[in-house]
């Protein structure tokens, strides 16, 4: 769990961007629940039906300014988009409009954070042309019968024990 001061900065960013959306669209939006339970390599996620923003506490601590400036409004834009337009493409024109016109931000869809601290165990797989590191989740899917194919050479990936 992030320090209380950092949580307060994140909440202030959320409140600021929510106010911008309310003013722009001339309507009230419910304040999202904020949690720090996101895991893995994902910086944040928006739970549309629950009106919740989940942030990755480990990535947050190492990238505080980027979270306040970019990640919080990115996830809030998903919630606002859902409340205005229903289910649409996650990073489609409606979401991009909110990011650019309402928040004044470049609508980036991915982050460039160092995820080495949060990356879980990986498993080495090979095809005819390359070697890949698959996550534990994907490795377990292979064990249950799922098959992954190289996009370049179209051969099945094989586990390297």
Protein topology:
Blueprint: H1 4-25, E1 33-35, E2 44-47, E3 52-55, H2 57-62, H3 64-85, H4 93-102, E4 122-126, E5 131-135, H5 136-143, E6 158-159
Parallel strand pairs: 1-3
Antiparallel strand pairs: 2-3, 4-5, 4-6
Helix pairs in contact: 1-3, 3-4
List keywords for this structure.
3-stranded antiparallel sheet, alpha+beta, 161 residues
Describe the structure.
With 161 residues, the chain is of the alpha+beta class. The chain has five helices and six strands. The strands form two sheets. Strands 1-3-2 form a three-stranded mixed beta sheet. It has a three-stranded antiparallel beta sheet with strand order 5-4-6. A hairpin with a 4-residue loop joins β4 (122-126) and β5 (131-135). α1 (4-25) packs parallel to α3 (64-85).
What are the segments in which pLDDT stays under 50 over at least 5 consecutive residues? none
Rounded to the nearest angstrom, the distance between the terminal CA atoms is: 37 Å
Task: Provide the gyration radius in Å.
Answer: 19 Å
Numbering strands along the chain, what is their spatial order in the largest sheet?
1-3-2
Helix proportion: 40-55%
- How large is the share of residues in beta strands? 5-15%
Major beta sheet, specifics? Answer: 3 strands, mixed
Mean pLDDT: 93
**Strand/helix succession:** HEEEHHHEEHE
- What's the number of extended β-strand segments? 6
Tally of contiguous helical segments: 5
């Amino acid at each position: 769990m992030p320090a209380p001061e950092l949580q307060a900065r994140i909440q202030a960013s959320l409140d600021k961007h929510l106010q911008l959306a309310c003013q722009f669209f001339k309507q009230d939006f419910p304040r999202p629940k904020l949690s720090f339970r996101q895991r893995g390599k994902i910086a944040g996620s928006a739970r549309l039906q629950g009106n919740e923003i989940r942030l990755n506490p480990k990535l947050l601590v190492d990238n505080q300014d980027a979270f306040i400036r970019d990640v919080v409004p990115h996830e809030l834009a998903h919630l606002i988009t859902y409340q205005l337009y229903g289910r649409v493409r996650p990073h489609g024109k409606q979401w991009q409009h909110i990011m650019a016109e309402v928040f004044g931000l470049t609508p980036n869809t991915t982050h460039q954070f160092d995820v080495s601290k949060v990356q879980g165990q990986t498993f080495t797989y090979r095809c005819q042309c390359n070697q890949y590191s698959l996550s534990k989740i994907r490795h377990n899917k292979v064990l249950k019968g799922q098959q992954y194919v190289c996009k370049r050479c179209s051969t099945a990936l094989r586990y390297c024990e």
